[in-house]
Structures are given as C-alpha cells and as structure tokens.
Amino acid sequence: MDAQTVIAWEQAYVLGVYKRPSVVFVRGEGVWLYDSDGNAYLDLVAGIAVNALGYGDPEIPRRMAEQAQRLIHVSNLYHTEPHVRLAKLLCDHSFADKVFFCNSGAEANEAAIKFARKYARVRHGEGKTIVVAFEGAFHGRTMGALAVTPRPHYQDPFRPLMPDVRIVPFNDPTAARSAITEDVCAVIVEPIQGEGGIRPATPEFLRALREATAAVDALLIFDEVQCGLGRTGRLWAHEWYNVTPDLMTVAKPLAAGLPMGATLMSQKVAEVMAPGDHATTFGGGAVVSAVAEYVVSRLADTELLAHVRERGRQLLHGLRQLELPHVVDIRGQGLMVGVEFDRDVSPLVQRALDYGLVLVNAGPNVMRMVPPLIISQEEVAEALQRFQSLVEETFS
Known about the structure:
With 396 residues, the chain is an alpha/beta fold. It folds into two domains: 3-56 and 302-395, Aspartate Aminotransferase, domain 1; 71-299, 3-Layer(aba) Sandwich (Aspartate Aminotransferase, domain 2). Helix content is 39%, strand content 18%. The chain has helices at 3-13, 46-49, 59-70, 82-92, 105-124, 143-147, 152-155, 173-179, 203-216, 267-270, 286-299, 302-322, 346-352, 377-395; strands spanning 25-29, 32-35, 40-43, 98-102, 130-134, 165-168, 184-189, 192-193, 199-200, 219-223, 247-250, 261-265, 327-333, 336-341, 357-358, 360-361, 366-369. The strands form four sheets. It has a seven-stranded mixed β-sheet with strand order 4-12-11-10-7-5-6, with helices on both faces. Strand 2 (32-35) and strand 3 (40-43) form a beta hairpin. Helix 4 (82-92) packs parallel to helix 11 (286-299). The chain is globular.
C-alpha cells in the first residue's frame, strides 16, 4: 500500500482519536525510522519511551519466534514457564516480592489502586478509601487511572469518575502531609512526571510521601511506566531517591513494544490478595514474557545504564549550550529530558519531520526527548544540530 492509501483507509475505518502526521513509517534500524518514501528520521520519541533497545534488535524476533513455535496462549488458568522466569527476574532486580502481569500501564495502575483498596479494607475495615494523586500527573485513560490524572480535557467528557480521589500540588511536602490522613489508602506518584512536562520529584517530596504514608498505613505507589526500566540511567527512577514504594507500576519498554504491563508489590500487599480478587486473560502471555525477560536483562546491565547516564549528560549539556530562543527551562534525568518554552511547542512537533527528526511534546509548552537508550554519541550530536535548526527557524 502507498502512503496515500494507508492514510485514506485509516480515515475511513479507524476511530479518529489520534492526530497523525502525513507520513507512514515502514521500518526502523537502531535509532532511525524510515517512511514509505525511504526518508530517514532520527527518532527522539521511541514509541513514547517504549523502544528502549531501538529498532532491529535481532534477539527480540528470535525470542518471539522461538516461543511462538512452542506455545502462544493458554490463559492464566494454567502454569507456564516464561512469566515465572520474568517475575523472578523483576523481583531479583527490585524491592518487590510478587508481580502481577497485565497488558498496559493503565491496567497496571488500575491493579495497584485495587490492591491498595483491598489492603486497606483487610487491615483497617471500611472507610479508608481515599487515593491521593498530584497535579500534573498522568496515570492512564481507563476510568480509575483517569480519576488520578487531573486533566479537565481528559476527565470532563467521562464524568462521573472513580470517587474518593484527592489531588494535591506536586513537589509540595507540606500539602502532601496535610492530605495524607487516616482515610487515605494509597498515594500514587511518578518519580519523574512524564506527560506533565518531564518534572522530577524532589528528594524531600518523595521522602515526605514515604513518611506520611507509613504513619497512616497507606500504600505508596510509584508509577514508573515512563521513567522506569533504565530510562533515567538506573533501572528504576526511584533508586536516585533512596525511597522504596509498596507498589510500583511498569509497562512501556517492558516487552519491546509488545503489550505488557506489570504491578510489582511487597509481600504485605501480596498477602491480602486471594484467587479471584483480580484477573487478566492475556497478562503475562508466553510470547510477551519471553521477550520481556530479554529486555529486562538488557536494561539491567550496568554497562548499558552507564551509557544512558553518559548520553543523558551529553544531551542535557548540549541543549543548554545551544542557547535556543524562548527556552524557559531544560531538565531531566538520563535520557528523559524536557525542554520548556514560553510558548506552544506544537509547531516544532509538526515541522520536526522536515528536519529528519521525530519529536513529541509533554504538555503544551514542553518538548520531550526520550530516544532509544542505545543512541550513540554521534547520534546525540546530530539530534542537537537538527533540533537547533528546527527551533531557530521556527521561533525566530
């Protein structure tokens, strides 16, 4: 199919909940994407922080094919080997004692909220149901996750939402302590807000959340769907803070673009859950688990994490050296970087393809850079040069 036919069929047959540019990507290699006309684009989006290992890693299709030839699906009614190996690997590399597998970050957050409600009911009885979340957060678009994603343009068309949610300013320890009262069952927070503009939590803020939740026996949930699994230069973003959660949600890069999410938890959470309390037909399927085992092993590698830290320093330093017009702030950790402007960045997103770049925003004024973690020194330098030309010629 040519590009015009693909776009025409999409307009005819696919529900129009996305605004897509007039380009059709057909293949990828390393950190580069290629369209149907053969044009190459340096990818700073990575499928929204999903393609951590870039494009064309030969081990991923090999693992898929090997497992698919043996077993694809039997559901969670039966034992299978791949998801057990993956669960052990995740527990071995985290605080967690148990893992629940699902299909997306939103599902992982829904599970975490349910588990927290069950924990509170078992340990404290009725009435301890409030979930505290924060301004600027993004936890997903399903009904529970949406309720803790305080964006009116996302929420308003779908009200009423899940009740008993308390929204508090982000990075305000005093406000958080006041909000975390005896009726709170859980606090959910991103150690680095993604869609909210690449905003890192302060150490004081996360420590305050840990202390306040412990005082009222509420569960602390870290949403690391975007910032976890090596993105910041450590396997988990919360490792930079020395604060340990009770639950953690992960997804995006977990299975290299195959649909997979996971909710990791401590034993005290796991022990209140019983058979039948929660379920999923496809979660932890054999093929995605086989791929995810490889991905997690790669992303936990100390040499790769050191590479992410080094390329992240190069990217942040390079952006600050450019002295671009209309820039308010440049922030981030590892290869999760935001460039905040004093104006709407949508023109940059739209024109980026003309400069051979793939870019995405994080809110109206922030340009987000979350390239594949395998990006080279030369490719970071190339990205900086192209981004400079894009910004200066668009905003001059």
